[in-house]
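Morning F.,

Quick status update on the modeling queue. The single chain you submitted on Monday has been processed. Sequence for confirmation:
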Amino acid sequence: MGNLLKVLTYNELDQGPNFFLDFEHAQPTEAETAVWNQVNAVLEEAQTILAELQSYTGAGQEIREAIQNPSDLQLQEKAWNAVCPLVAKLKRFYEFSLRLENALRSLLEALTSPPYAPTQHLEREQALAKQFAEILHFTLSFDELKLDAESEVNNEMANRMSLFYAEATPMLKTLSNATTKFVSENKTLPIEDTTDCLSTMACVCRVMLETPEYRSRFTNTETLLFCMRVMVGVIILYDHVHPVGAFAKTSKIDMKGCIKVLKDQPSNSTEGLLNALRYTTRHLNDDTTSKQIRALLQ
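Structure tokens below.
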């Protein structure tokens, strides 16, 4: 199967097929090239976006001084000069989220289209599955760095941008909305084709994380965190798209196993991901969620 190797399913967990997906070296086949090139252009820009966000310093001090001294024209001009480039940067981030949404849609179309089942797509189109994972990794990375910019943008940005930055996890919200929209607009495509793609990815990541012999295949230490972020990202998307969510007994995602594998890692690398499950999912507090799962996330 090339870079996608089957892993024996654990007997006690009948959660569907498990795979080792090579997140580090999967390359596009000829059939994948068109979509891969389109998405790759977006992913290349994603690295620049993260670097800009990491260097973001804000203009809080200049704004406070201008507000406290409304008659001081020099301070007003200083604040204005500080805010203008930041507004442009925030606009760029927002516009990038729209391109990311389009990239996600292209990948969902490729990974769920008939006649192949989602699992077959993940086997056949390994490079596209890797790009899907990279989008999720970027999304959670962005939201972990998410800036508190409301005081700087509310009066300068359009309403949609204000709403975007008001979200606790704006990029993840963008992907959730895009996935939900993809399902609703493709009425001839069974919703299970999309949710099965997500649940299979979650299963892939869980097995790689909890199985030492497969973790040892990673050549880059960062791949471990990458795998955890992807697992959490697909769980959240599944929970937003599936009618009963990821936490119900009928879910195809082994939530106990996923949470346990996160808790087995150093807390400094997983607390943000556990918080994402606590606060950005839709169905955690539903009556269908078991007490054991709620207790694991307390």
